[in-house]
Amino acid sequence: MAGTLAEKVWRDHVVRKGTGGEPDLLYIDLHLVHEVTSPQAFEGLRLADRQVRRPDLTIATEDHNTPTLDIDLPIADLTSRTQIETLRRNAEDFGIRLHSLGDADQGIVHAVGPQLGLTQPGLTVVCGDSHTSTHGAFGALAFGIGTSEVEHVLATQTLPLAPFKTMAITVNGELPAGATSKDIILAIIAKIGTGGGQGYVLEYRGEAIRKLSMEARMTICNMSIEAGARAGMIAPDETTFAYLKGRPHAPEGAEWDAAMEYWKTLRTDDDAVFDAEVVLEAADLEPYVTWGTNPGQGLPISGRVPVPEEIADENARVAAERAVEYMDLVPGTPLRDIAVDTVFIGSCTNGRIEDLRSVAKVLKGRTKAENVRVLVVPASARVRLQAEAEGLDQIFLDFGAEWRNAGCSMCLGMNPDQLAPGERAASTSNRNFEGRQGKGGRTHLVSPLVAAATAVRGTLSAVSDLDLAGDVDLTSFDGSPLAPLDPSVPMHV
Question: What is the pTM of this model?
Answer without folding.
Answer: 0.95
